[in-house]
Amino acid sequence: MPLLDQVIEKYPKAVRVVFKNFPLKGHKYAREAALAALAAGAQGKFWEFHDLLFENVRRLSTRKFREIARELGLDMARFEKDMNDPRLAAAVRRDRSDGLRAGVRGTPTVFINGKRLHKRNLSGFQARIEKELYRARPGTR
User: Fold this and answer.
1) Which of 47, 89, 94, 116 to pair with 33, CA 20 to 30 A apart?
2) With 0-12 CB in 10 A as exposed, 13-18 as middle and 19+ as buried, what is 111?
3) Which pLDDT belongs to residue 52?
4) pTM of structure
5) For 87-108, what is the mean pLDDT?
6) On the CB side of 104, how many CA atoms lie within 13 Å of its CA?
């Protein structure tokens, strides 16, 4: 089971995952991959598309994005239209700007309540989450 799924399973009421795009400048298909995932998200398939992108990270291309979209049963005309939607492009730019302001330099970068998580394994997540939950209790800080 992927790590984030384990974290969500352990803390179903305490954890909310927020994904931000941070296309790396040196990655030829990063921006297009972000747009493709958001276009898939417009049809309710963001996470499925996201996961398939990472499974195919060495084979990314415009053609591969369309192949994944077809595999997920997306409406291809809508997918193509959404890939070119200026609002999605603006969302990717905004996410990247947010990341730069937060000090993100690479991917993946994980934050919990605004604090960068350095130990990105289950015990690292648990330790940080437990610390944040403790701090959130009335009378503690």
Assistant:
1) 116
2) middle
3) 96
4) 0.87
5) 95
6) 21
